[in-house]
Amino acid sequence: MLSQLGIDTIRTLVMDSVERAKSGHPGTAMALAPAMYAYWQFTMYYNPADPFWPGRDRFILSGGHASILLYATIFLAGVKDIEDGKVVDRPALTLEDLKNFRRFEARTPGHPEYGLTAGVEMTTGPLGQGCSSAVGMAMAERWLATRYGRPGFDLFGYHITAFCGDGDVMEGVASEAASFAGHLKLGNLTWVYDSNRISIEGSTDVTFTEDVAARFAAYGWQVLEVEDGNDVPAICAAFKQGREETDRPTLIILNTIIGYGAPGKAGTASAHGEPLGMEALIGAKKAYGWPHDAPHFTVPDGVREHFEALSGKRGAEAQARWEEQFAAYCVQYPQEGRELKHIFAGTLPEGWEHNFPHYPTDAKGIASRQSSGEVLNVMATHVPWLMGGAADLAPSTRTLIKGEFSLQAPSNQGEGSGHYGGRNVHFGVREHAMAAICNGLALSGLRPFCAGFVIFSDYMKPAMRLAALMHLPVIYVLTHDSIGVGEDGPTHQPIEQFAQFRSMPGLTLLRPADANEVVESWRVAMGHRSGPVALALTRQNLPTLDRSRYASAAGVARGGYVLADCEGTPEILLLASGSEVSLVVEVYERLSAEGVKARVVSMPSFDLFDAQEKAYRDAVLPPAVRLRVGVEMASSFGWDRYIGLDGVVIAMNRFGESGAAAELMEKFGFTVEAVYTQARRLLSQQTA
């Protein structure tokens, strides 16, 4: 009796919240209420009194449009709130919060937002992202268990469950992630596929008629089916079977009726993305046997206590056992215990900045992708939980951690060639899933990086955007950053990508000019905890600048800095990022020899520079100096705020061509002579 009452309470809170908001998606939440109840009450190990407990099971609502389902459950389960990273003695959500669903500044926004509402494990909404990031969470659990597991200590072993729908399963990113999860044999992962066969445009028959079960079986998943989405015992049995399968991820196909119980709405597209309307709402409550005179947002006596007696008690007991084990573990394995505390807190170990390389002056220099790989390997010795890989491009992106295993299911390769504790991840040609998986790794406390060519970041952008929304410290190592890639031609030559990165709130782009700027860029990236960082690196060699003559590369931390200067106020400013900095340095030397007062400003990061105080920015770019030349082998979009009306930007405002890099730079004006000519033209206009 209490079980059915709990399910119907979730459903009525869902309907009342959406109706009051006059906005929302009630149908999926109504259909999934029994599965949500079965999971939280009888399956999941989660302590509502401590939403950050590291040993908890993870739940992801990939279909974030059904957010009210999660909010109602968080409320009924009595999840405690989080403030400044610590649990506080107040509920994460109250009944009043449900009444404010989708309202401005509410803690119950239209889609779940990580960091805003305790109990929400990740920001979801763009379909396919949640279930794909759940693969990263499952990889993290396997990595932690393998890396830190010791005889007699069962600190890990938690399970990851994602609820997804037809839209999630249609999305390409989910297909990429599911393929990878099957390859890795992630038996700690379950996706619950809400098969209600309805999309916004109507029946999924108009677009989606494949055999989903056969597809996932081909991926290497265990596929289970529950015929009736209201059958709680059958749902619980499927969850149990999923947890018992240790060598394959599990897909539970759950057959539901969208808008269950609502007359005229159940099983129709109109139940998906709009309030039911009062007539259908009253009819649904009647179908559930809900008291006809009960006011909206009624929570019957005993329902919340029932949640506490089942899920709350089980979670609290599990955490108490875990805490006892962890305390003993830290005594017996102090170094590993310290590392785990850093992982749980999201901090870095002492001395993580030690032994960074310093590169001597070298006219020939080194490609920034190469120096980045060298710095990465130094960094990896200091931060054992720094891990990642490339989308089948590690040899090109220089992102292999030397001396470390590959992360593989142990049975995938010969004995000793790979295991779940490996730090090198071979993502395959799956850029979108790679970025989403890294979000799951970061949400689990690890420090992930992923790599590819800058141009292929277009396949990664949706997951990168979510990383920025969630303030996750993911590092993107993106190489082949300009027309300098040469013969591969315009399909591989990035033009508009930097402008896209710079326009994304919360994402920091760094484009280092030489090997020592690469060192400082990695220092910034690792120390940056409030969002993702993208490193844009070259294929071609870059001269290593003479830092005894020019300024220290430590200026990278401020985004832009005076690299080379003159006595007094400069007549002209030469600005550039990345490989183009050494070019403008040569122009500077030529102008200086002719008596021109010039200044070179290296601009590795617009984002960091714009965050500096105005006094610093004005000191680097004096407002009175209006003659400015900006140089970047990418779109000029965004440079205008530094160059002004009297300056000029030498940039790429068209797609490139196939040819040798030197030929392309000559054609598009990225030569010392071309930049010098532009600078001289500005100076002559001033004197005229």
From TrEMBL:
Coiled-coil annotated spans: none
InterPro entries, A to Z: THDP-binding, Transketo_C/PFOR_II, Transketolase-like_C_2, Transketolase-like_Pyr-bd, Transketolase_bac-like, Transketolase_BS, Transketolase_fam, Transketolase_N
EC number: 2.2.1.1
Catalytic reaction annotation: D-sedoheptulose 7-phosphate + D-glyceraldehyde 3-phosphate = aldehydo-D-ribose 5-phosphate + D-xylulose 5-phosphate
Enzyme class: transferase
MF annotations from Gene Ontology: transketolase activity
The name this protein goes by in its record: Transketolase
